[in-house]
Amino acid sequence: MSQQTAVRGPGVSGHGTLAAYARLAKLDIYDYYLGLAVVWALLAPAARWQPQTFGLLALTLVAQVVVVAAMVGFDDVTGYRDGSDAANYGSDAARRRLARKPLVAGTLTEAQALRFSWTAAAAGSALWAAVVAAAPHRPMWAVVLAAACVAASVQYSWGLKISYRGFQELFLIGLGIGWTLVPYALLTGGTTGFVLVQAVLFGSGPMLFGLYSNTNDAEGDRAAGRITVATLVSARAHRLFVAAMTVAQIALIAGATATGFAPWWFAMVMLPLVAMRLAHLLIGFRGDILRARRIAIHAHRVTVGLLVVAALVSGATP
């Protein structure tokens, strides 16, 4: 019996539904797209309300969604083939929502997922080219960074399989940073120290909640040959690594305020985030990894709100 036949439930047809493709694209996970709200808030007040600004941000949003759809589609195919998704989701379907893995759940075939992923990869690349072509500014570093983000996303678990080669954590933070800096630079022609601080704070959010996923998935990832910090070190060492990354984010907030890269009041605005970070760290240390992950996801979304407030206030402050 093939692996695909083994996981397909009775009565499941071979025809994918729109809902199954939406689950394959992980449309319910929108955290990387929230960076565009931060970009909008960081713009000069006069530029925020220009129709061209909204048009470029909307086109960028579509490009990001389509590229992520390709990335997670290929990731699901790879996880299905090597058995890591069945190992990581099958034993805890109630909490991990097995339906979000349509190949393992049997609601899509591997061929359907591959066609979807390749189509999304081509469309996403074309959309990002359109974003660059439509932008009022095209600094070379931003164009190169945009291309690197697209290429790395498509090869996250496919091609070079960078998430299997020990670069997953770096990718998770890097994509968030890139997808904040690139649209800002395309709209303004450059960047600033405060924008860079906000980009790193935004990008570190998906990395931090990804670390809890890696903690939970360490055994299945290790069996599949996926290299993450969680698969290379002991559980205690990985907890310390998560703590170090959490403290690093808090230190960035304090350091940016102390050195003048951020306004003097920035650290105070970010205090709710600091509280949430310490809360999920404590819960994770006590062993409830999936609850800590949920709080970390909410903390990232709170981060976006706080960064938007800080950007708007900073722009209004003489």
Q: Could you explain how this protein is built, in words?
A:
The protein is mainly α. It has a single domain, classed as Farnesyl Diphosphate Synthase (Orthogonal Bundle). The protein has 17 helices and no strands. The protein has helices at residues 3-7, 18-24, 35-42, 45-48, 51-82, 84-90, 93-96, 102-105, 110-134, 140-154, 168-188, 193-224, 229-232, 235-259, 266-269, 271-285, 289-316. The radius of gyration is 20 Å and the shape is globular. Residues 1-15 have low confidence and may be disordered. It comes from Actinomadura chokoriensis.
Distance between the termini: 69 Å
At CATH level 3, the topology is Farnesyl Diphosphate Synthase
The CATH class designation is: Mainly Alpha
What are the segments in which pLDDT stays under 50 over at least 5 consecutive residues? Answer: 1-15
Shape: globular
Query: In total, how many domains does the architecture comprise?
Result: 1
Cα radius of gyration in angstroms: 20 Å
Keywords: Membrane, Transferase, Transmembrane, Transmembrane helix
Membrane topology: Multi-pass membrane protein
Protein name: UbiA family prenyltransferase
Organism: Actinomadura chokoriensis
Describe, in short, the structure shown.
The protein is mainly alpha-helical and 318 residues long. The chain has helices at residues 3-7, 18-24, 35-42, 45-48, 51-82, 84-90, 93-96, 102-105, 110-134, 140-154, 168-188, 193-224, 229-232, 235-259, 266-269, 271-285, 289-316. It is built from 17 helices and no strands.
